[in-house]
Amino acid sequence: MGTGMMDWLALLDDHWGWLVFAALLGMGEVLVPGVFLIWVALAAAVTGLVALVFPISVPLQLLLFAGLCLLSVWGGRRWYTANPVDSQDPLLNDRAARLVGEIVTVVEAIDNGRGRVKVGDGVWSCRGPDAPVGTRVRVIGAEASVLKVELV
């Protein structure tokens, strides 16, 4: 093994290396929040505490860290599934749902419940009551990329 790798492994031989690693990962989570580094930081901290209490070899510490990483990420994922974080904009990635309530113009007559409406600078398929070109309609819902409309 190269001397660079040996230097890094020497840091892990001491419990302080794990605890410093945990602190750095925790700071990384604060600087670049992704709700992931914190779980790896937790695994590093527990590995450091175990290494403090029980003098275990570096390979065993690495195995313990790997197992704790898997366990903590799995546990964190379960926790976030059970306790979802509220979004400031829950419709951010649902463009069709964001259009509900908008008044749009029919550009291809709605005939037999199907037509097309102009939304901004684009044209969307729609379903609703029959209406001629130029009629103003309100978006009341969406199914996939088809808007549901009603007469204004």
UniProtKB/TrEMBL annotation:
Domain NfeD-like C-terminal, residue spans: 97-150
Keywords on record: Membrane, Transmembrane, Transmembrane helix
InterPro entries on file: Membrane_assoc_protease, NA-bd_OB-fold, NfeD-like_C
Spans through the membrane: 16-42, 49-74
Principal location class: membrane
A cellular-component GO term for this protein: plasma membrane
Gene3D superfamilies hit by this protein: Nucleic acid-binding proteins
Source domain of life: Bacteria
Cell location: Membrane
Membrane topology label: Multi-pass membrane protein
Any one Pfam family match given in the protein's UniProt record, by short name: NfeD
Protein name, UniProt field: NfeD-like C-terminal domain-containing protein
Organism: Sphingobium chlorophenolicum L-1
Lineage of producing organism: Bacteria, Pseudomonadati, Pseudomonadota, Alphaproteobacteria, Sphingomonadales
